[in-house]
Design goal:
The chain has 261 residues and is an alpha/beta fold. It has two domains: 44 residues, no CATH class; 202 residues, Rossmann fold (3-Layer(aba) Sandwich). Helix content is 34%, strand content 24%. The strands form two sheets. The chain has a seven-stranded parallel sheet with strand order 6-5-7-4-8-9-10, with helices on both faces. The protein has a three-stranded antiparallel sheet with strand order 1-2-3, with no helix packed on it. The protein starts with 11 loop residues before the first strand and ends with a helix. 33% of the residues are buried.
Length: 261
């Protein structure tokens, strides 16, 4: 293996835990193990790698061209989860309504910190995760610019005819993006505001099942999200007695989020 090969953070395993993958480093030197497959056999050697700050940060975009699909609810709760795990989280609020910005302004100081930037030109300092809350109608150059920043996209869809149609068109647009076609960006979908045993929910489930994409969660309609948002909180900031039922629905989504793929 040549010394001048470049490696992404997904190629790197911490030396003290070779069985588990990590995203490591923010501008610091680490001794790492690089794995290289040779006809099914691993040939590894130790290298010192100086990782630039941006290489370690993971980024996720919450997007759907349809307004009212639950993007801010999803993005704030994802940010809250990551912060609760001790990750350094930055939110980029691209939505014209600035709902995530207002939510952060209400966030109690004793809760895990989530930082905020308002434009893509701002550079997050020492962040592990960038969570982007996007506006309705994102398309064209704005969408292309956002895609250049992220590793993953979650598309929330609510159970209505209009939302399903808009989501179908948006997913079709995403499928033609170069980074998506080359497998550099991973997409998952989430059913939002699901009411069990309703025709609308059944229709959405049928639509999502027909997509060649991972279904990350079906999140039910509940006031728990609404009450938490008013207080600048997320499910992951609430006592288990108030959030246990909802948290069960997040299990697969959170596992997918932290996978290196």
């Amino acid at each position: 293996m040549s010394n001048n090969l470049s490696f992404t953070t997904t190629d790197i395993m911490m030396q003290n835990s070779p069985s588990k993958w990590y995203k490591i480093g923010i501008g610091l030197p680490y001794t790492a193990i690089i794995t290289c497959a040779d006809k099914g056999k691993a040939a590894c050697r130790k290298l010192k790698i100086n990782l630039e700050r941006g290489d370690a940060m993971q980024s996720i975009l919450i997007a759907n061209s349809k307004g009212g699909s639950g993007k801010t609810t999803l993005s704030t709760n994802i940010a809250g989860y990551l912060a609760s795990r001790g990750q350094r989280v930055v939110m980029l609020d691209l939505d014209r309504q600035k709902s995530a910005t207002q939510w952060l302004a209400n966030r109690p100081s004793e809760l895990p910190v989530i930082d905020l930037i308002q434009t893509a030109e701002e550079k997050p300092e020492k962040a592990d995760w960038l969570v982007i809350d996007s506006p309705a109608g994102m398309h064209g150059k704005n969408l292309e610019s956002a895609l250049k920043m992220v590793d993953k996209i979650i598309v929330p869809i609510v159970p209505s005819l209009f939302d399903i149609q808009a989501s179908r068109e948006f997913l079709e647009i995403l499928s033609h993006e170069k980074a998506v076609r080359k497998g550099k960006i991973f997409i998952g979908v989430v059913g939002m505001r699901m009411e069990p045993h309703t025709r609308a929910a059944a229709t959405l489930e049928q639509f999502i099942a027909g997509l060649d994409l991972p279904v990350l969660a079906y999140l039910r309609e509940t006031q728990v999200y609404v009450r938490a948002a008013f207080e600048g909180k997320t499910l992951f900031d609430l006592p288990p007695s108030l959030s246990e039922r909802e948290l069960e629905q997040w299990t697969y989504l959170l596992n997918w989020l932290e996978e290196s793929h």
